[in-house]
Amino acid sequence: MWMNNCRKYRADLALLAGNDLDAATRLEVERHVVTCPECRAHWQELQSSQQALEQSRGTAVVVSLETSSVWVDVQRQIRVVDERSRRGSWRGWLPAVAMAAACLAVILITSDILRESTVPPEFTRQPAYSAGTPVSFSTSSAQPTIVPASAEELVPERLEDARVDDRPRRRSNRAERLSNGPYRGF
Amino acid sequence: MARPHTMSEIDTQSLESPPPGGGVSDARLVEAVRKGDHDAFGELVKRYEGRLMSVLLRFVRDRELARDLAQETFLRVYERIEQFDPSRRFGPWLFRIGVNLGLDYMRKRKRRLWPLLFSESRSETPPDPSSSDPRQQLDLEQEVRHVLEGIPEHYRTVLVLRDLENFSTSEIAAILNRKEATIRWRLAEARTKFKQIWTRRQAERKPGDQVFPLPGSEESDHDVDE
Ligand SMILES: [Zn+2]
Fold first, then answer.
1. Which chain A residues have a beta carbon less than 8 Å from that of B75?
2. Are B23 and B101 in the same domain?
3. Nearest CA in chain A to B33
């Protein structure tokens, strides 16, 4: 009977030791301790260990912001983050366009090979993914003028983007950052 | 802005905003950061770096490492600033990221870092003039550190944040993302466990060589002059 009571009071005493108990509960606990030698002994030990713990906090750590603020380093790193976010804003449609560009690049390369080879165009199989945009290899339209320009624009963009992402950062978890990093529009 | 902060000064600073000296609230600064204001983020960094470093120093052994972790914390905060719920307090959210980084780091270096709970950097700092004997203080810190080693991590973390870093239980609840009742229960358990180990170790010591209460004797076994 009293054992159960004591168990409840032991938790309260631990809280009381660090002044983490409300006044009403405190009164109740104190009343019990007066009448219970076991809890009284427990309380005395708690006071002693708690005092040791609190006194061990250590001497003041002086953080001189003048000499050691992390802001300079953080500022440099968040610029990289911003840069990546700006690039990230293209990511919504980039895969589709990149795929199209890649297809066109393949076609162009193929057409170069074809022009240099003796194989007649009608015997070459067109890539399945270009089915919707039949490409003629007749002399006039062999190289659609718009294609090389956009292919050149997109590919370096992607490479550079990857390079920024791969830049090593001290003790960073890049994979997690990439998966968690939200898009920011600034 | 660029004045030195001491721990005692920071200790008394709550995680509420705005800071005691007045000025712009955390919420306002966060809002500005979201609009692309780097200076506002700089203000938040300077506002919290001292306290964050102090907490991280409880987890890792050296100042440089704590600094790296602090830097990483701020970077993650910046990257996730859109995910922050402005109706909540910014401080605990920041410390949650920092404490998790510290804990992750420790788990990777399991058994090697908690013994160094009190970093060398702390010990190197000049002793508090109000404490009578720096050797006794270091002895006490070492002994407490050994006792903390014997406490499971989720109790120990609460104990460190409450009794060494002076966060309130509601702040710890916010930092660890648990209910305050859970934190209070863990705190009670942690203090009780600490007491058990502490009392046993004290009893095992030679009479007159107890670390605490400080008897004023010079009979320590430990060479703590360093
Ligand atoms: Zn009792």
1. 74, 77-78, 81, 172
2. yes
3. A186
